[in-house]
Write a structure and sequence with these properties.
- The protein has 147 residues and is an all-alpha fold.
- It has a domain at 82-146.
- The protein is built from four helices and no strands.
- Residues 1-13 have a biased composition (Basic residues).
- Residues 24-37, 81-96, 126-141 have a biased composition (Basic and acidic residues).
- It comes from Ciona savignyi.
- InterPro entries: Casein_kinase_sb_PP28, HAP28.
């Protein structure tokens, strides 16, 4: 940064408020407080006037109910589900149906899995037969070399 740019406050002289200024600020603060108190007293006198009650349809009236009344309300009318909830329930049911069909082997994916398993089983059986044949061949070689 070139010389003569922005400077910090370190080189500046400090400024102090005088006692007279502090006293005048305190007096003005006290005056404001008194004004606020007097205005609040005026407002309290306004509260004595009758209040107009308006029926607001957006305001929900909260009434206390007993637990027995709530149970009756819940059992009497089942709550309607929203569209998202209905879709979620339908999705879960479809998933259950698919899992049942898959377990029974009726889906395309299940058939492909079973075919793949059959191929793997055959490969494992062939590998096991090879190992047994190699084992027998080694044993025969070992027996032939001993005699």
């Amino acid at each position: 940064m070139p010389r003569g740019g922005k400077r910090s406050q370190k080189g500046r002289t400090r400024q102090f408020t005088s006692v007279a200024e502090l006293e005048s600020q305190q007096k003005s603060d006290n005056w404001r407080k008194k004004q606020e108190e007097s205005s609040s007293e005026e407002e309290s006198s306004d509260e004595e006037q009758p209040v107009i009650n308006v029926n607001n349809p957006n305001r929900i009236a909260t009434k206390t109910k007993k637990a027995s009344q709530l149970d009756e309300i819940v059992t009497s009318a089942p709550a309607e589900l929203s569209r998202r909830e209905k879709e979620q329930i339908a999705k879960q049911e479809a998933q259950k149906r698919y899992q049942q069909l898959h377990a029974q082997g009726k889906t395309d994916e299940a058939r492909a899995d079973l075919a793949r398993l059959a191929i793997i089983r055959k490969q494992r059986e062939e590998a096991a037969k090879k190992r047994e044949a190699e084992k027998k061949a080694k044993e025969e070689l070992a027996n032939a070399s001993k005699t």
